């Protein structure tokens, strides 16, 4: 079923030139998609937006409920700070080319429709009904669809056609034609759409993802795909996405594999987070993480991100609520910790949280996940979440046998490092040599990032800006605390997605 699409898609950043893309299928049976990258400069950067509730919207996940066609079905569009990685596909006959982001953090394929409101060129190959019949096992053409993002949304209808990726032709692929793309940020993009590589469980309409059809139609020799991102800013080549296996030229040594723990995103268990070899004290009992090729930064709980940004000298916005909790309740919290009180109950004991163990430190920005949470009661919730952060920070300092004065001084410095309302924190470009390494424990191995790898440089000298690669995102239990290991991490570590053995693997990128 052919479709018409205009080049009218949108995104969260303004970007520079994208060169033509190259695909190849070699005699080793692997299908390679050449990826180009677009780097931001200072005049073209858009770090994200604020939604109607004033919540930073760089990343918003829908982590609960059923995923279908209703307005509650949310798959996040990411905010790309350092570089965006793009490939080219074609749809229909005659084939129409589209530049897409290959995104392991979502599962739908969608491109602009000929009916898109902001298109400049329309080539329609076939008309498609706008009726909304009851979906069958395969999506019925014309079935309405909507995907909501932190800075806007897209809506349209399902279509079906052949999709060409490299030399592979995926037959009868369901995808969304976007007819409406509200929001000013959706006017800025240079890419056309998204090709989701996540699991069907988070696919809007339960549409079968492109990768599933590649496997089911016997187009690849192994149910494995892998990413290599080129993080060398001086080189034009963006990297390579390999379908059907791995290219040994892309990595060194052996991969460390961990099982997928929750189908939807490529989610797995992650261990401790270390700054300069020392534990941050939050994930020592384990956290969850996802490998997400569509996110530029590395996102995690505000509690740890604040500690990391303090350690690397990143500057955010002073939180008055944070300093107020330290000033008014710091001594009481410290006394309770020293008396071996249950840490998860301390904030309710002093009246800042509503019930014992009813919240988790990760619930720092509830509305990042559900901005319509009517259970939230404003200032009280803010003080509660800050108190929970303070408990973790103090615990960590007590383990080091620090004095009360040094602990309170450290706490106030952490308050100063809380992320800005837009989520980014800046560092001094001349201080990289003195910054600590930050490490993540996955499986039985520690994966280290140096300052040169986690700091993103935007613009050219002498006005280069350096941005911390760590940004805050808080996901409540049972799905959280959750880390999103985006391009900052995947650029350093070649990543394998194995859907046959349900595992994710990391090895040092070559």
UniProtKB/TrEMBL annotation:
Residues 85-507 form the Peptidase A1 domain. It holds the Pfam family Asp. Keywords: Aspartyl protease, Disulfide bond, Glycoprotein, Hydrolase, Protease, Signal, Zymogen. One of its GO terms (molecular function) is aspartic-type endopeptidase activity. Residues 1-24 form the signal peptide. Residues 317-357, 380-470 form the Saposin B-type domain. It comes from the Eukaryota. GO terms for biological process: lipid metabolic process; proteolysis. The active site is at residues 103, 292. Belongs to the peptidase A1 family. This is Aspartic proteinase. It comes from Solanum commersonii (Commerson's wild potato).
């Amino acid at each position: 079923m052919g479709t018409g699409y205009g080049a009218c898609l949108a995104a969260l950043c303004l970007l520079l030139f994208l060169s033509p893309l190259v695909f190849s299928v070699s005699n080793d049976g692997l299908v390679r998609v050449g990826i180009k990258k677009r780097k931001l400069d200072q005049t073209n950067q858009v770090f994200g937006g604020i939604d109607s509730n004033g919540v930073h919207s760089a990343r918003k996940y829908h982590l609960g409920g059923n995923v279908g066609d209703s307005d509650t079905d949310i798959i996040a569009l990411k905010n790309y700070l350092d570089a965006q990685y793009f490939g080219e596909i074609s749809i229909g006959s005659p084939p129409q080319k589209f530049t897409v982001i290959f995104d392991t953090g979502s599962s739908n394929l969608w491109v602009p429709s000929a009916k898109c409101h902001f298109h400049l060129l329309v080539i329609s190959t076939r008309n498609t009904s706008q009726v909304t019949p009851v979906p069958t096992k395969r999506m019925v053409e014309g079935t309405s669809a909507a995907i909501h993002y932190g800075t806007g949304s897209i809506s349209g209808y399902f279509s079906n056609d052949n999709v060409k990726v490299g030399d592979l032709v995926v037959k009868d692929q369901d995808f969304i034609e976007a007819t409406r793309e509200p929001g000013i940020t959706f006017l800025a993009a240079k890419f056309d759409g998204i090709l989701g590589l996540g699991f069907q469980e988070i696919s809007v309409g339960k549409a079968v993802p492109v990768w599933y059809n590649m496997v089911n139609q016997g187009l690849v020799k192994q149910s494995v795909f892998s990413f290599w991102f080129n993080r060398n800013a001086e080189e034009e080549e963006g990297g390579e996405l390999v379908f059907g296996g791995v290219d040994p030229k892309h990595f060194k040594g052996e991969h460390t594999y961990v099982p997928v723990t929750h189908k939807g995103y490529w989610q797995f268990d992650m261990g401790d987070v270390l700054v300069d070899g020392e534990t941050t004290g939050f994930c020592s009992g384990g956290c969850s993480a996802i490998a997400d090729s569509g996110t530029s930064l590395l996102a995690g709980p505000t509690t740890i991100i604040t500690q990391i940004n303090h350690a690397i000298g990143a500057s955010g916005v002073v939180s008055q609520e944070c300093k107020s909790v330290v000033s008014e309740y710091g001594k009481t919290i410290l006394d309770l910790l020293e008396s071996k009180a249950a840490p998860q109950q301390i904030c309710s004991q002093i009246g800042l949280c509503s019930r014992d163990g009813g919240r988790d430190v990760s619930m720092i920005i509830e509305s990042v996940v559900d901005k319509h949470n009517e259970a939230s009661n404003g200032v009280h919730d803010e003080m509660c979440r800050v108190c929970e952060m303070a408990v973790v920070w103090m615990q960590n300092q007590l383990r080091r046998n620090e004095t009360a004065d040094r602990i309170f001084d450290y706490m106030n410095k952490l308050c100063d490092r809380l992320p800005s309302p837009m989520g980014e924190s800046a560092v001094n470009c001349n201080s990289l040599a003195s910054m600590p390494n930050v490490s993540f424990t996955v499986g039985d191995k520690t994966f280290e990032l140096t300052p040169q790898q986690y700091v993103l440089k935007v613009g050219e000298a002498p006005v280069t800006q350096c941005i911390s690669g760590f940004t805050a995102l808080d996901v409540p239990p049972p799905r959280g605390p959750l880390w999103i290991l985006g391009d900052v991490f995947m650029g350093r570590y070649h990543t394998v997605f194995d859907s046959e053995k349900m595992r994710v693997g990391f090895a040092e990128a070559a």
